[in-house]
Amino acid sequence: MTTPAKLDLAAPPVVKTIAQRLLVAGVVFAIVALAIAFTRPDEFYHAYLLGFMDWLGVALGSMAVIMIRHLTGGGWGVVIRRIQGAAMRTLPFLTVLFIPLLIAVWQGRMYPWAMPLGAITDAHIREHLDKNRFILESYLTQRGFFLRAIFYFAIWNLLSFLLSKWSKEGDSPTARDNTQRFKAVSGPGLILYGFTISFAAIDWVMSLDPSWISTIFGLMILIGEVLAAMCFAVFVERILVDYKPMSDLLKPDFVHDHGKWMLTFIMVWAYFNFSQWLIIWAGNLPTEITYYMRRLNGGWGYVGLFIVIFHFAIPFAILLSRPFKRDIRKLFWLAVWLLCMRFVDLFWIIEPNFSETFRVTVADIVVPLAIGCLWMALFFSNLASLPLLPLYDAQAVEVLEPVPHHGGT
Predict the structure, then answer these.
(1) What's the pLDDT tens digit per position in 152-169?
(2) Domain range for residue 320?
(3) Can you say whether residue 293 is alpha, beta or left, with left for phi > 0 and alpha for psi between -120 and 50 degrees?
């Protein structure tokens, strides 16, 4: 093995170039988004929630995958740990980006429970809230919304801080073995992540229609996040694989494992979504079927069919191929497609709350692009700030001196 002193694991210069270009693009899109915010505030807030949930999902999903790897082991996770760590370290920035949603609640926009009853245009929701005032007085309150958001972001940022701090120690020749520390945090951390994202999904997305509930909704958001995170890791490693050191570190077995994780997450995502649909549709209760009735009419049903085919059926069939999963150049294109489909999925979940007929506004494109470009600029800046592998970490040997691999994840 090459001695550590001779290894150059710094990110290639192209990473900083990409960060600079994305920052410029982000500023341009942000200026247009601000113009929309002042001229069409309702459309802006709807699109902002969509874009925020999309990019927050990549950051939180990356943190979850890091914790899964610390509990399960494997070189597949070590080779992308710094990629996913760079995504995870954007959480302070995303915490700041949550402020416009707090403003929307404070102004009584977007969320029916934050509006006066007379201002709610949906008669079904207005009647539901009028009959269940205890919901407005006990849970769906502005103060509760603010305090719970503080709690969620505090937990996420704390987990990110600890995982990042111990990972950075792996760059020092005097680094100690933090394997047990990682495991001690990752076990409870995954539980906290599942708990907090489930309630955050209720507060920020499901409460757009407070007359409807689903006990599996939080898990649907969660599995979408980890799928997006793995796809994003594949997207970035494809960019890096043309340069050293990733060209030396990324083995076909690791790519194969990443493809298998994508296949696993797609199947679980489909299972959760189908379970919710089957239970609600079979129950046929007026208070529950409103969610799907709104999304199967007015043109939204075609979007749902598009998601079924192109978010599950076709990617599932493609990922059954072992050679495909081992080819990073082919897997890259599927990863990009699934990232786009994740956006479409969130669009189908969020936007029908604001329009009974299918529509796409300029804000729905510009605002998520503004958030995404700024987020990715920070991501690539984070990626350039640390070596692509924690060389002195006890787990680095799984990449530098991989043990015989038998295809298992």
Answers:
(1) 999 999 999 999 999 999
(2) 8-384
(3) alpha
Query: What's the whole-model pTM score?
Result: 0.94
Look over the chain and give the mean of its residue pLDDT values, rounded to a whole number. Answer: 92
Comparing C-alpha atoms, which of 145, 169, 109, 22 is closest to residue 354? 109
- Per-residue pLDDT, averaged over 356-367, amounts to 96
Domain count, the chain: 1
Question: What secondary structure does DSSP assign to 176-241, as a single string?
Answer: ---HHHHHHHHHHHHHHHHHHHHHHHHHHTGGGSTT---TTHHHHHHHHHHHHHHHHHHHHHHHHT
Q: Residue 409: what pLDDT? A: 45
Spatial distance between the Cα atoms of 70 and 390, rounded to a whole number of angstroms = 14
Residue 403 lies in a domain: no
- Position 372: which residue type? G
CB 68 within 8 A of CB 229: no
- For 283-322, write each residue's pLDDT tens digit: 887 777 888 989 999 999 999 999 999 999 999 999 999 9
116 within domain boundaries? yes
Distance CA 280, CA 287 (A): 10
Q: Is residue 391 part of a domain?
A: no
Q: Write the DSSP symbol of residue 9.
A: -
Spatial separation of the C-alpha atoms in residues 353 and 216, rounded to whole Å: 19
Reading phi first (left if > 0) and then psi (alpha if -120 to 50, else beta), residue 407 is in left
Q: CA 133 → CA 112, 122, 312, distances in Å? A: 13, 16, 40
3-class DSSP state for residue 245?
Answer: coil
Q: Is residue 395 part of a domain?
A: no
DSSP letter for 393, please: S
Identify the residue whose tokens are 């926009």. 109
Say what the pLDDT of residue 404 is.
53
For residue 81, CA distances in Å to 43, 131, 197 come to 37, 50, 22
Would you say 388 and 82 are in contact if contact means Cβ atoms under 8 Å apart?
A: yes
